[in-house]
Amino acid sequence: MLLQSFFDYMRYERGASEKTIEGYRSDLKAFESFYKSLDSALSWDMIDADMAREWIVSIMERGGKASSVQRRLSALKSLYRFLQLRGFVGHNPVAGVTAPKKERPLPTFVREEEMEHLLEGEGMFPNTYEGRRDRLIIAMFYETGLRLSELVGLNLADVDVSAQVLRVIGKGNKQRIVPFGGGLLHLINIYIGERATLTAETGQCFFVTREGRCLRPDEVRTMVKRQLGMVTLQQKRTPHVLRHTFATSMLNHQADLQSVKELLGHEKLSTTEIYTHTTFEELKKAYDTAHPRA
Fold this sequence. Notes:
By secondary structure, this protein is mainly alpha-helical. The chain has 13 helices and three strands. The protein has a three-stranded antiparallel beta sheet with strand order 1-2-3, with no helix packed on it. β2 (165-169) and β3 (175-179) form a beta hairpin. The longest helix has 21 residues, at 18-38. The protein is elongated, with a radius of gyration of 28 Å. The two termini are 53 Å apart.
């Protein structure tokens, strides 16, 4: 009776779709089955916060995701707000119950051996101006962790080959200095030499087409997707995956989290911490593969 009153309210007063109502019905019936399994004499006006928390725990123990728990708890809270509003219950017993936070998806990255094969393998890039430029772009993403907007925004003056640093304009128009190593310096020098031989007017953009036009973000995305497709079968093959790959590789080789945060240009350390979960998963896989009792 109480549930039907709630569904009528959702349908006729709130204008909810039948799909939404069926979702609520499924979630609330699941909770009803749960509390009836604890005590068949229980009813909706006898529920307390502890029972709701027990239900959440039971869902999580069966492998339910945080997003699923949040949805179900939201349905329960909506029901009790209605019941309290209509005087069916004196208070909302689940008002203070919180669901677990949604899991943050782990960043997708390319394995080190795959990146080495792409950058050092035979025939991965054509022996042309475009091929040498594109190889440098992949290497720069992988070795510096730049965002796509930061890479296409580089000007000639931003690439300091003597100091081996890039001057990058990141989010919020903030500048940061990103160092690079000898391997990338070699590729940069090759590219600068090739760029200087172009007959077209090139302007100040560092990465340009053969016609001298600044390289566009969509052109870089297309190239990265094509090149990564040569070494990995994963679906996500974007410049941002290479940024994730940079961060993961740094942490796998004992870089400290604060340094990686500065290199990536993150505002908060918590943003960078997601990569520690990735490296932990890699350690777990290595353990599971290598240990005889794993």
